[in-house]
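User: Sequence recovery, please. Input:
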């Protein structure tokens, strides 16, 4: 049904602006900021659907916590076009819990939360320190000019998630490019499908190996639950993909942001105890995982407007994390602010399962990097740093850096 407002025709409605390159690479697109005067407004989707866009922080939180809004892929309209995808999306593949609602979601989620406690993640922090130091040693050897993404931002989270899950790091060649393809918005549906199948096949082999010979890791641990091999491979694939790409982009883009804000970097260097706060502020400021779509299961009134059953609502994480009602002077990177309450990890039933791990990794990695290389700087002009603006996870493709050798 055509549910456009009476004053605006469908053609005049905005689509989701995605190009962050215009202006500052860390800021939301100017077109998006221009739409932030209203927390909730109508938006035109890739397939012509007239749905909604949320830019207000409080509105986003309310919707993400409301079970009347579904995460099921088959109910969603895509906010931005994806090559080779038209019509209805297929339901979530087995084990991909991000595309499920309660009660299916709850069953998997309960099982997994037990493995991702704050305590367990803290225990991993000593390992993070070791692995980070090893990566920095290798980087120092390779330098003084390296691509920080390849030398540091990718290997640190990759080593950690491999260790946590019990995936051999030496197999990285086999899964790293598949994960990149899965998140790449410019890759067509067929290429994504192939990458996903290959990833699942790899995990499937690994699950069988863990069943036969359990080791001390999360995947082996999960084989003692009532999950099937297919479910285990799917969940393993999801964790591996989520663990590899997100934190890596935060480390790469976060380093770029700190190098571009030397006063903030100096403050962090002067007081490494600010690391946790810096990480929260970078999560808010950069919002790498964006946007989050949901579909209304029934008519819901929000902000005095009627969202009808079947309509898709897109939460712009970037816009909500720059909402001035929640974060004063939002476009300023300020590591002294308390950025808690940001939506970079989502909110509600699907809030990021790996957030404690990600926090531990970043809290260790950023100070270690800047302590090791006090003269670290970009090796190219900032406007030449290639950005991942066509991916579900924003970041830098590479970050050429250099330092003075002692
Ligand atoms: C969910 C962001 C790191 C595993 C999410 C969601 C966001 C997010 C926004 C919510 C999606 C939604 O509501 O639809 C991030 C960011 C990270 C990060 C910014 C790094 C800084 C990780 C890591 C892991 C992980 C390291 C794995 C170890 C997951 C999983 C879900 C999820 C399994 C799905 C949870 C569910 O649907 O119940 N993440 N994530 N994430 N994340 Fe993360």
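Assistant: Recovered sequence (406 residues):
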């Amino acid at each position: 049904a055509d549910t456009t407002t009476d004053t605006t025709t469908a053609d005049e409605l905005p689509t989701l602006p995605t190009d962050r390159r215009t202006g500052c690479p860390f800021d939301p697109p100017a077109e998006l900021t221009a739409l932030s005067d209203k927390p909730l407004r109508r938006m035109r989707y890739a397939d012509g659907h007239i749905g909604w866009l949320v830019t207000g922080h409080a509105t986003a939180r309310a919707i993400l916590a409301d079970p009347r809004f579904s995460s099921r892929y088959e109910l969603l309209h895509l906010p931005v076009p994806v090559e080779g995808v038209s019509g209805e999306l297929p339901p979530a593949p087995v084990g991909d819990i991000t595309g499920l609602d309660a009660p299916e979601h709850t069953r998997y989620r309960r099982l997994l939360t037990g493995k991702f406690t704050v305590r367990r993640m803290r225990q991993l922090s000593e390992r993070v320190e070791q692995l980070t130091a090893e990566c920095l040693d290798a980087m120092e050897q390779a330098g003084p000019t390296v691509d920080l993404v390849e030398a540091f931002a990718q290997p640190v989270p990759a080593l950690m998630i491999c260790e946590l899950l019990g995936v051999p790091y030496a197999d990285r060649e086999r899964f790293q490019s598949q994960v990149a393809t899965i998140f790449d918005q410019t890759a067509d549906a067929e290429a994504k499908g192939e990458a996903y199948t290959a990833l699942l096949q790899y995990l499937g082999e690994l699950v069988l190996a863990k069943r036969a010979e359990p080791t001390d890791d999360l995947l082996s641990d999960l084989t003692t639950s009532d999950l099937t091999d297919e479910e285990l491979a799917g969940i393993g694939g999801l964790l591996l993909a989520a663990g590899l790409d997100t934190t890596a982009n935060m480390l790469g883009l976060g380093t770029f942001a700190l190098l571009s804000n030397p006063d903030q970097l100096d403050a962090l260097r002067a007081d490494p105890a600010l690391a946790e706060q810096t990480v929260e502020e970078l999560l808010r400021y950069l919002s790498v995982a964006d946007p989050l779509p949901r579909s209304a299961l029934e008519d819901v009134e929000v902000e005095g407007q009627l969202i009808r059953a079947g309509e898709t609502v897109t939460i712009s994480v970037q816009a909500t994390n720059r909402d001035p009602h929640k974060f004063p002077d939002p476009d300023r990177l300020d590591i002294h602010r308390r950025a808690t309450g940001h939506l970079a990890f989502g909110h509600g039933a699907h809030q990021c399962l790996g957030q404690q791990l990600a926090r531990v990794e970043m809290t260790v990695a950023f100070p270690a990097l800047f302590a090791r290389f006090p003269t670290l700087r970009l090796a190219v002009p900032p406007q030449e740093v290639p950005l991942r603006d066509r991916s579900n996870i924003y970041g830098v493709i590479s970050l050429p850096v250099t330092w003075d050798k002692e």
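The pocket of protoporphyrin IX containing FE is lined by residues 71, 97-98, 109, 161, 238-239, 242-243, 246-247, 250, 288-289, 292, 344-346, 350, 352-354, 357-358 (CB under 6 Å).
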